[in-house]
Structures are given as C-alpha cells and as structure tokens.
Design brief:
Layout: E1 7-11, H1 15-27, E2 31-35, H2 41-48, E3 52-56, H3 64-74, E4 79-84, H4 89-97, E5 102-105, H5 112-138, H6 147-165, H7 175-178, E6 179-181, E7 186-188
Parallel strand pairs: 1-2, 1-3, 3-4, 4-5
Antiparallel strand pairs: 6-7
C-alpha cells in the first residue's frame, strides 16, 4: 500500500552516479529529483516535500553527514539512506547515530540494493501513516460518529437485547438497551 507519493531526493555530486541511480529508480516507479550541489539540498527538500532521501556522504563544500544532521533537525520523519565509498566502521556508526535508515556502499554493483532500501523507507512511512490514521480513528470525539455507524451499532444492541429475551423470560431492560456502543465508547441514549 503506497500512501506516500513515491518521490525520492537523490543527492550526489557525481553526475554519472546521479543519472544511473535516477534511471534505475524511475524504472522501479519512483519520481526522482537529483541534486548535485549539497548547498541546495535543504531548499530542494522543502520545495519538493520529499519524504525519502538517498544521500552521498563524500561531497565537496558540505558532507552528507552534516546534511543528514540538518535534515533530521528539520524533520526527523524524513527517511535518509546514506550512500558512500568511505567504507569504515566509523562511517556506519556516525550515519546510524545521526538517524540514517541505511547505508549503501559504492561502487554500486547491485542497483537493486538501492531500490530495496527505498522500498523499505516508503513502507516505514506508510506504516506510520496507517498507525496515525488508526490512532485518529480511535480517538475521534463521540460527536463525530456518523449516522450510519450509530444505526449499525443500534441494530447490534437491539439484537443482543432480543436474544436475551428468547430464553422464555421477560425482556429485561438493561444498560445495553439504553446505550449505543460506538466502537470507542458508550453514548447514552
């Protein structure tokens, strides 16, 4: 289920890498905005509203770890996967500690690793949106319940009451017949 627009911001100072990654991600159904100047990343991110970023680490003028920190300070919900040729434990640990979702090493021999990482980022965002929607549904005020929901729940309450009376005893008016269950609570009638 894709609840989030499939827009990826790809940041890499190497034009050939940008073209290669952009082509691959577009082939997998993503819209890609490529930025080669790290000083334009924050403005582009805010302008496009991208929720997923593929970010090179080793760039002139501003490195990817500095950008990662800036992105997460601006919006911690943006999913960032780092991409680097600097293979070291320190790079991995710094990326993780700053909030990166993953790390892909160059040279890019298997481009499917990129699309898999991007897929996982969008899946994570969608799960958060679904959890938020569920929370909102569970916490909506009683007065926002639709007439249809009230009618359906009233029928269910009446059926429970009728079934209580079919054992040969006289129907008993109970709390269930004077209230309507609406999923999150009880609304008195």
């Amino acid at each position: 289920m894709n609840l989030t627009p499939k827009l990826v911001l790809h940041v890499d100072d190497d034009p050939s890498v940008s073209k290669l990654v952009s082509y691959h991600l577009k082939k997998h159904g993503y819209e890609v905005v490529s930025v080669q100047d790290p000083n334009q990343v924050m403005e582009t991110l805010m302008r496009t509203g991208a929720r997923v970023v593929l970010l090179d680490i080793d760039m002139p003028h501003k490195d990817g770890l500095t950008l990662l920190r800036e992105i997460k300070l601006r919006d911690a919900g943006i999913q960032v996967t780092m991409c680097t040729g600097m293979v070291s434990m320190q790079t991995v640990l710094r990326s993780t500690s700053l909030g990166a979702e993953g790390l892909i090493f160059k040279p890019l021999r298997d481009l499917n690793k990129i699309s898999e990482a991007i897929d996982m980022s969008f899946d994570k965002i969608d799960k958060w949106w679904m959890a938020l929607a569920e929370w909102k549904e569970r916490n909506r005020p009683v007065n926002e319940v639709s007439e249809t929901e009230v009618a359906v729940n009233k029928v269910a309450v009446n059926k429970v009451t009728e079934s209580q009376a079919t054992d040969g005893t006289a129907p008993v008016r109970s709390l269930s017949t004077s209230c309507i269950h609406i999923g999150l609570g009880i609304a008195e009638r």
